Amino acid sequence: MIASCSRLDMVTCCSMLYFTLHEATVFWYAYPWWKEKEIDSEKKRLDGLCPLTPEETALVLKALGFSSDTLIYIASGEIYGGEARMASLRAEFPKIVRKEMLLSEEELRPFRNHSTQMVALDYLVSIASDVFIPTYEGNMDKVVEGHRRFVDNKIRM
């Protein structure tokens, strides 16, 4: 199993790929904690500071030799663009799962209103997976890498 990260707040750093300039500006200024208010998305993308798109993720996985029957766990909250955005990755790797697909509604209920606990579920899968391939450098990436290095029995690409 491969675990991969993708979150709306990661994607918004490259907003011009996904939002109009007006939508992005409204979003950034609506949240006082959003530090960077003026974002040059093309520059960020050229500098390699944007998360991989589902299309790019499929290319990377194929280039690394993963077969189309590889089980992929998406460790994330709601994905911007939903399932339509994931279509290209799913076309290449149809065995994509998320916690909502693996657990029943009853099993998820205690975690539903607690975002940190939902992330903890993703964390547990990520540290237990055979391979962890983050699509963006963030806190989850660093914590999973640190845990896996500490345990010293898993690989990170």
TrEMBL record:
The UniProt keywords, alphabetically, are: Carbohydrate metabolism, Fucose metabolism, Glycoprotein, Glycosyltransferase, Membrane, Signal-anchor, Transferase, Transmembrane, Transmembrane helix
Q: In which pathway does it act?
A: Glycan metabolism
Output the Gene Ontology cellular-component terms.
Answer: cytoplasm; membrane
Give the stretches traversing the membrane. none
What membrane topology does the annotation report for this chain? Single-pass type II membrane protein
One GO MF term attached to the UniProt entry: glycosyltransferase activity
* Source species, domain of life: Eukaryota
Q: Which residues form a coiled coil?
A: none
Annotated localization = Membrane
* Example GO biological process: fucose metabolic process
Q: What is its main location?
A: membrane
What family does this belong to? Belongs to the glycosyltransferase GT106 family.
Protein's name according to its UniProt entry = O-fucosyltransferase family protein
Q: Which organism is it from?
A: Rhynchospora pubera
